[in-house]
Description:
heterodimer, B: alpha/beta, 9 strands
Amino acid sequence: MNHSPEKPALSKLFRLQWEETQNNYVLLYPEGMVKLNQSAAEILKRCDGTRDSAAIVADLESSFAASGLQADVEDFLRIAHERGWIR
Amino acid sequence: MTEDVAASAPLWLLAELTYRCPLHCVFCYNPLNYAENRNELTTAQWIDVMRQARKLGAAQLGFSGGEPLLRDDLEELIGEGRRLGYYTNLITSGVGLSEARIARMKELGLDHIQLSFQDSTREMNDFLTSTKTFDLKARVAKLIKRYDYPMVLNVVLHRYNLDHVGRIIEMAIEMEVEYLELANTQYYGWGLVNRAHLLPTREQLQKAEAVVNAYRAKAGNKLRILFVVPDYFEERPKACMNGWGSVFLAVSADGTALPCHAAKTLPGFDFPNVTQHSVQDIWHHSDAFKRYRGDAWMKEPCRSCPDKKKDFGGCRCQAYALTGDAANADPVCGKSPQHGALQNIVLQAHAERAPLQDQPMLFRTDANSMRFATAGKSGKK
């Protein structure tokens, strides 16, 4: 199986966007849409191709005054990669 | 539940900008009598519809037709769609997609292009569309990738190209498309008229599916292959439109709002027009969008079926076309009393290929369409 990319970026098929009427973030792609929960959206927002997963974790932990997010973030990145959301 | 089921928001706006088309595909889902009404909404009217639907919650915008490239204002509509926050999809035959237009659309923010091919061979592609477009489409495919668009390659499958599915997949890999949509023919509009020609055999389907699965295992993430089920061969109906009036709003060239792009085939409807009603009113209050929303309209076997919230009783247009009543269960369903009759249609289509001699294949042309329109008026209804 593929490993998660080192510095993940959103795949060009997908657009991350806030949807006012749904009151949540969505990923839009050709003829489809995925509704995201808040933590998924916050992780994906930080997938800009410049940060590795450690930097993403550090940023999230400081933004949300949390700790111990590493395992959750890495799990999510692995799934997001399997689904082709990030590259 | 009362009959006034609370509607969720439309998520999909399909703008069928025009019924004009340079192709003459034998499986086109456009209405048979499309040539009768050539009215098209103006640029300002389309923009207004896009704004209204976006406000209601629509996030996906498809430009389709006919061939949407025949509208000179397509670029303007794309630009406005993108500004409004839609994910913008261009669904095209590729005919008319010059480099200048494709570059301009990129600047304007077009998100994705779905290009249709009818086969992996020039001969079959050109025969089924009654055009010489294979080479042109191949050039357009290269152009789409050169401008770095996500691309869906759409190929409608039937008796004449199912055996080519491996080569079609190879073609998609070569073109570096992200998605390949292998859409088994759905029998509406021109597809229904040509059904006896187009229905494949079960053996053809099984072989094709095995080929698809083998490629899926090999291609992994690089190419995603969607295999749209050939529902005549199934036992459970498709969740058509994800439920009537649930997420999908089509607006046809003249402004008629439809809960499904084939809905014009249903009798007894007065489909609302966006030139006369607001999109909000149409979506929430029109009889057409409310009629099969939710499940209060259902008859048996749907009404008491545990799957009714999963498949919504299948497709209303198919129920009407095959049973004469759109509120019946879609006969694709094994529980439908008419399921046996549907299976007979499948069997007969394979028997000796006899039906092929009965009626020639009918291409989607203005002349053929006018014939249907006239027949409809002279009391065939």
